[in-house]
Amino acid sequence: MPFVEDPAHLSKSRLKADLVAHNVALPPAESKKEIYVELHLKNIDQKNAADFSSDEEDPVQDVAEQEEDPEDTEMPDPSDLTDDDLKAMLLKYGVKAGPIVGSTRALYERKLKKLLQSDGHDRLNGAEKAVLYSDSEEEAEEEESEKLEPVDQSDQALQESSQEPVTDSFSDLLPDMKTTPTGIYATCRRPIRGAAQRPIQYAYPDTPISPMTLERREVERRLVPIQIQIFVFLIVACIVYFLFVNVEDGSFVSDLLDSLSQGYSANGAF
Amino acid sequence: MTSTSQKHRDFVAEPMGEKPVMALAGIGEVLGKRLAEKGFDKAYVVLGQFLVLKKDEELFRDWLKDVCGANAKQQGDCYGCLKDWCDAFL
């Protein structure tokens, strides 16, 4: 049994790959697994009946494939699910589905199919890598038994531990991103400021003015008239001084003063 | 965000009322006819579908492609138009 590949136990992607390897025309995309199995049986198993593929890798691969196949074949077909089940399945993948009504059912079924396929692909990749590592482990063990050197053992142990963890570094960088079917991640670009009717809004529309500058500005506003006032005052003072000097006898000034005092006293009487 | 078309701006400027489906951005005569044949003759019916899909971009675009064969640009225009209208009026 380990040497004969039973196509029903293989995954759909494995069947596809096998068909391509044997130059068999693939059925249209999104066909059911049974179609692939039929084609596989017809074309490939006839060939295998002739030659015995007795590679050592086969049992390892079959074991690895069979480990993950039962899970794959148990996956229900989205079109067979009830509305509630479909919603629950989508929720398992983190998709919060809206109402599943007539117009939305097909869309959600398709979405679930995509999620199942991408999940199957991921598991298949993991299985293939496990196969590679298990081969290297087998070879390493053989070498160990032959050489029996502790140094080699430690090196191989290190190699195994470094190869085994299969982590996707890209998805680690972006843990929040949803997986897309094409693997292309796109994020929205920040809008360009100042372009296309998007005026730049400055946080501080007016430049801040300190109280000192405000005072200085007010003083400056009055400074010019003040200068004029001082100038005029000085001119008047000069004129008065000249008059005072020119009039040789002080009687003119004293007459003025008397008249002024008379005027004041007259006013003061009232 | 890319700049919007005049059609988009006209649609988002006011409640859609009884506007025909061809008033939606991205939906021209050909697509409008196909939508009307499927029963989506008014813009509000397409809005209904948009809302039932919980305004999800991917699902709405897939649906639009299925129902009337819209290309990626038309899908994007229609989605953006409805989304902006909902932001403004819903």
From TrEMBL, chain A:
Compositionally skewed regions (Acidic residues) per UniProt:
53-83, 135-146
Keyword Plastid carried by entry: no
Q: Cite the residue spans of the region called Disordered.
A: 47-85, 132-178
Q: Which Pfam families match?
A: LEM, Thymopoietin
GO MF assignments:
DNA binding
The GO cellular component terms are:
nuclear envelope
Q: Which residues form a coiled coil?
A: none
Family statement drawn from the similarity comment of this UniProt entry: Belongs to the LEM family.
Name of the protein in its database record: LEM domain-containing protein 1 isoform X2
Q: Which organism is it from?
A: Stegastes partitus
Q: What is the lineage of its organism?
A: Eukaryota, Metazoa, Chordata, Craniata, Vertebrata
> Which gene produces this protein?
lemd1
UniProtKB/TrEMBL annotation, chain B:
- Which domain of life does this protein belong to? Eukaryota
Keywords of this entry: Chromosome, Cytoplasm, DNA-binding, Nucleus
Question: What Gene Ontology cellular component terms go with this record?
Answer: condensed chromosome; cytoplasm; nuclear envelope
Protein's GO biological process: chromosome organization
Subcellular location per UniProt equals:
Chromosome; Cytoplasm; Nucleus envelope
Q: Which GO terms describe its molecular function?
A: DNA binding
Q: Does the keyword Cytoplasm apply?
A: yes
UniProt keyword Cytoplasm present: yes
Q: Which family does it belong to?
A: Belongs to the BAF family.
Please report the name of this protein according to its UniProt entry: Barrier to autointegration factor 1
| Biological source species | Stegastes partitus (bicolor damselfish)
